[in-house]
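Here's a chain:
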Amino acid sequence: MLTVDFERLGLRAGDRVLDMGCGGGRHAFEMYRRGGDVVAFDMDADELAGVLELFSAMKEAGEVPLGAEADIKQGDALQLPFADGEFDRIVAAEVLEHIHADVDAIKELVRVLRPGGTMAISVPRWLPEVVNWKLSDDYHNAEGGHIRIYTDHELVDKVTKAGRFNDGTPGDAMIYEGKDYAHGLHAPYWWIKCAVGVNNDEHPLAKAYHRLLVWEIMKQPKTLKLAGKVLDPLIGKSMVLYFRKPEQSLAGDVASDV
């Protein structure tokens, strides 16, 4: 179940790509299938072990093009162990809402993206997330849970200012290129879960809707694909923002003028 549109991101075979906060690896796997040189990055060693195992299985099964590479790296989003400008593309899907120092994490993402590179950041969309928080404290008070709700304007502002120096002068300020919404069918499921209890997986309504989502993911029936396209812009659970780092470094221009 992908959130990011890789055509819009501009992913091409051979691109050096980072999946920051990869979790179970869904986006990393797709980027590998598309021929990327992929690094799946996360703090969770157990999750990463599973991702690495599937990377190997994909290669053995011939699911990736010749020359594609994939590896894992464990670490802290606030101190990415990568060189400046190392990546052509970056994905940070459903991770910033978990990080207290989100601006510091964003600055690290901007730092490791090359000039001219692109980045996709997805977070829970404001309206569906507000409903979840109103219905259930357990939804966001869980350990490692969501600690903030973003508006599109707030997140765009944080990312586009992430390359500025501490005195406010321009650095490698990111360019905002637009947004999408995804997973419109999933928002009602979480509203149900929050209403009946986020851990109450046996509630009949929650079980029935979960079966519907499994059917959507596994079989991709045309009726549910159409329903998703209608619901995504209305109540899509995820918001995806796309950015580009300028080819010309403003930071370099400022330094040269000093």
Notes: Confidence is low (pLDDT under 50) at residues 165-169, 251-258. The CA atoms of residues 129 and 149 lie 7 Å apart. The two ends are 49 Å apart (CA to CA).
